[in-house]
Amino acid sequence: MKIGYPSRTHAHTALAPSREAHILRALGAGPIHDGEWAEGTWSVQPWHSGPSLYDKWAPHRAPGNKAVPSRLDALASATALANLHRSGWVHGDVQPAHLIMGSAGATLIDLGLARGGHVPARWDFPYKGCLVHYEAPEIARSVLACGTAEPTRESDVYALGASLLISATGWRHVAYADDASREEQRQAIVDKPHRPVVIAGELGRLTEAMLSYHPSDRPTADEICAALMLAM
Fold first, then answer.
1. How many CB atoms lie within 10 A of CB 72?
2. pLDDT tens digits, one per residue of 79-92
3. Residues 218/212, Cβ–Cβ less than 8 Å
4. How far apart are CA 82 and CA 102, in angstroms?
5. What HEC string does 155-221 produce?
6. Rounded CA separation 23/157 (Å)
7. pTM confidence score
8. Residues near 63 by beta carbon (within 8 Å), at least 6 away in sequence
9. Distance CA 204, CA 82 (A)
10. What's the CA gap between 46 and 21, in Å, rounded?
11. C-alpha span between 74 and 79 (Å, rounded)
12. Which residues of 127-165 are buried (b: 16+ CB within 10 A; e: fewer)?
């Protein structure tokens, strides 16, 4: 169950549970229930069991561990994203905590910021970026310039690359101080190159491509899946 209420910085968080419920129903998920309460909206949806990608790859972040992260996990994550993109939606908030690694593959959760199909105006709100640790340069630049942005398949792919990198290494895609403001973090993403991708093999090559600065240089989610399957 999700309870929405205005956060310290964003009033739209009160609407997110019902917005997500509408999107999940549009995608054919169920059973989904939602409604309103004094502070905002609420929703109930099926629980997905399993660790997040970040938790599952925790052993790879241990000192001295040189094992290559599972390409099967990466493929499951890319497949979940590719399926969403084929449905006509973009996620807008891809991060390791939103990739649940179950026994039958990965589930991409938390679609409250997704864009693609119709959302009733009563629940809709502008996209103001996501968790900055996974934000693409073009999203960060737009949020800095005008406070909003438009998530795309390409920015989702960048976020997947940033998710793989931090899950495998513990490092954010771009270096900035832990106590930096959101504006400083976003400016670093706009101005700085991403950290070196120190993941071996095809998975590292693909992660590097996902983190390309220019959106047109990034592979699609389907292309990532195809390359990972060839590398198995």
1. 13
2. 999 999 999 999 99
3. yes
4. 17
5. HHHHHHHHHHHHHHHCCCCCCCCCCCCHHHHHHHHHHCCCCCCCCCHHHHHHHHHHCCCCHHHCCCH
6. 20
7. 0.96
8. none
9. 19
10. 11
11. 8
12. bbbbebbbbbbbbbbbbbeeeebebbbbbbbbbbbbbbb
Residue 5 half-sphere exposure, CB side, CA atoms within 13 Å? 5
Per DSSP, 92 falls in state S
C-alpha 77/C-alpha 99 separation (Å) is 7
Summarize pLDDT for 20-45 with one digit per residue, the tens.
999 999 999 989 999 999 999 999 99
Locus of tokens 């991708």: 197
What is the CA angle 16-177-8, rounded to 5? 30
Six-digit token string for 138: 């073009």
CA dihedral 201, 203, 206, 210 (to 10 degrees): -140
